[in-house]
Amino acid sequence: MARLVMKFGGTSVANIERIRNVARHVKREVDSGFEVAVVVSAMSGTTNELVGWVKEAGAVHDWREYDAVVASGEQVTSGLLATALQEMGIPARSWQGWQIPIETDGAHGSARIEKIDGARLIEGFGANEVAVIAGFQGLDPATGRITTLGRGGSDTSAVAIAAAIQADRCDIYTDVDGVYTTDPRVVARARRLDRIAFEEMLEMASLGAKVLQVRSVEVAMVHGVKTFVRSSFDDPANPQPGTLICDEEDILEQQVVTGIAFSKDEAQITLRKVADKPGVAAAIFQPLAEANINVDMIVQVVSDDAATTDITFTVPAAEFERARAALEKARAEVGFSSIQASTDVVKVSAIGVGMRSHAGVAAAAFRALAQKGVNIRAITTSEIKFSVLIDAAYTELAVRTLHTLYGLDKA
Ligand code: ADP
Ligand code: ASP
Ligand code: MG
Question: Using an 8 Å Cβ cutoff, are 255 and 285 in contact?
Answer without folding.
Answer: no
